[in-house]
Amino acid sequence: MKYSNVSFIVLFVLISFILAAKTKNADGKRSSVSIEEEEDIAFERQLKNLNKKPIKTIMTKYGDTVDCINIHKQPAFDHPLLKDHKIQMVPSFIQEETTSNNISASSYRVSNIDNGFQNERCPPGTVPIRRTKKQDLANARYLLQKKINPNRTNSYSSSPMNYHFVSVEELSQGKSYHGAAALISTHTLELTYKQFSTAQVWIENGPEEEKNSIQFGWLAYPAIFEDSHSRLMGYWTVDGGKQTGCFNVLCYGFVQVHDQVFLGAVIEQISIYGKLAYNMVARVYRDRTGNWWLMFNVIIGYWPAEIFTHLDNASVVRYGGIAGAEPQTDTPPMGNGYLPQLQDYTKTAFIRKMKYIDDKGQLQNINPDGVQSKHDAKLDCYNILFAGNLGSDWEMSMTYGGPGGMCS
């Protein structure tokens, strides 16, 4: 481990402590301040720290409030390990773009990412950061907080949310990964308020109690975004989600450098069942500085090397999706809401050009002979099919998803 017991208490733990604690005054008696009031105080403190004073504020056509923040004063630098961090404006090397914009058939296209600014933009020297609301912090409290453990029947059984996942991973024999890349199909799902669904890639390393993880892709979650649009998602943790890390920029860590595209932005073009299949470029890679750069069609920003304890490289790269809801309720659709098939790719959710990045910074195909598929729900709820190497612009590909329901 780089740092001895390096972790800081982020919002999730703070709130959990407040909910569990018995608030007493100096005389040992019950305080007149309720647990709900204590929780509100914690939220307000976190909101004050996260929502920096903007140079300009933009109301998007999707109803989001986006603040243009001085790039050197963004929330990431409040992380205690980043006080002396010098911002990196571009990666130490730019990867060759090997993922083509179009597949051979004209019915497959690359999705645009829409920040919703219309005719506005952030001033020079600032970056766009979606303003955090109190309900965002409350509803994101358990989002992706628990890591996937494919060796357990229900990898999220200890979580207060009801989760299910499907995934494909290469069972490496001591292989070292320095990133992962894929083209992920984009879809619109009809979700209830407390349901969420993702299409994503995982990069992980470290022992179970100190699991370092970066997860990225798209997410639909009405409880945070107040709509069912698919949006850009990034997540990190250094202890399997127990105390550190968060989704998007709901804590300190991710450094935004792009002046227009930001985490939480809407994926504007989505697939039309049986007619058009849209996909987006998704990639995370470690450059020579040790920072982990995030790309969705364009380079957005990075997670600094300082915040990780076991991510000099990764031992696991995984591709798939997660669907979640409140306990004892139906879990939502995943992918495009249909069970996967390999006959018509305009009628199924897919992840294609599944690659990892080696220690030389080169994109490499995963080994089809070493791939294992995993899922933790009934097959009429969600499934996953690894197609292998389809050649041409598809290369290593998989399909996944399903309608959801009572899936345990």
TrEMBL record:
- Which positions make up the signal peptide? 1-20
Going by the UniProt record, its keywords in alphabetical order are: Signal
Annotated Neprosin PEP catalytic domain ranges read: 158-408
Q: Which Pfam families match?
A: Neprosin, Neprosin_AP
Do you know which InterPro entries this protein is assigned to? Glutamic_endopeptidase (IPR053168), Neprosin (IPR004314), Neprosin_propep (IPR025521)
Which branch of life, at top level? Eukaryota
Q: Record keywords: Signal included?
A: yes
Q: Has UniProt tagged this entry with the keyword Signal?
A: yes
Output the PANTHER family linked to this UniProt entry: PROTEIN, PUTATIVE (DUF239)-RELATED, PROTEIN, PUTATIVE (DUF239)-RELATED-RELATED
Q: What is this protein called?
A: Neprosin PEP catalytic domain-containing protein
Q: Which organism is it from?
A: Papaver atlanticum
Lineage, uppermost ranks: Eukaryota, Viridiplantae, Streptophyta, Embryophyta, Tracheophyta
